[in-house]
Amino acid sequence: MNNIEADFQEVISSWVKDVDTHCAVHLKNDRFLIPLIAGTVQGVTTSIKEQTKKTLAAGIKPEVIVEVIYQLAPGTGILRVQKSLIEVQKAFDEENIELKKITIDEDPEFGAKVQAKIYGTEIKNLLHDLPDQSGNFIPEALTEHFFNDFYGREALSVKDRERYGLLGLIALNVDFQIKAHARGSLKAGNSESELIWSVIQLLPYVGFPFVVNSAQVIHKSAVELGETK
């Protein structure tokens, strides 16, 4: 580490520690996954290997780590996910970790049913007037290749998928999707407190503006749904 990097680490060390100390009071050990989400979405893989080791040491199953990163692909694209998984694999190799086979729900429409329950036809309605059937293809592809392809994989619950997915969208700073998935995460069983503290855990990686804006969106959604806690 050169002098500039060492100096920067000294400057930010109290900030990172302060965030982690406060989040540890409100979140379970799966908060260690949150820096992995931020790094993957941002395409910054320099700390992925070491963070993966920290996450394993916190008792998080390797299948959960992989599944959280897999699920980011529909939001951030496959290339950044592939880059991140290379570093995850290095950590697994160094720790002699072997993945167990993921079981998949027998219902091929499991994800579509989850989508319908939480989101209804929101995207289909939004895109209905696009030309040459493109307005049909995009929502159909979303249903098939996000919800059906991922949600039936039983390493993660729907509740956790919604929370981790929301954090990925916040790291991307996509306003419409953050609003939709804040509501979706609450409807899937996440509490307002859990979501906001999860966003706070993102703070060193995405900065204050993203966190302040997203916390307000989550709070407003919780108020509208009558689920403030």
Automatic annotation (TrEMBL):
Residues 139-217 form the Carboxymuconolactone decarboxylase-like domain. Gene3D superfamilies: AhpD-like. Coiled coil: none annotated. GO terms for molecular function: peroxiredoxin activity. This is Carboxymuconolactone decarboxylase. It comes from Xylocopilactobacillus apis.
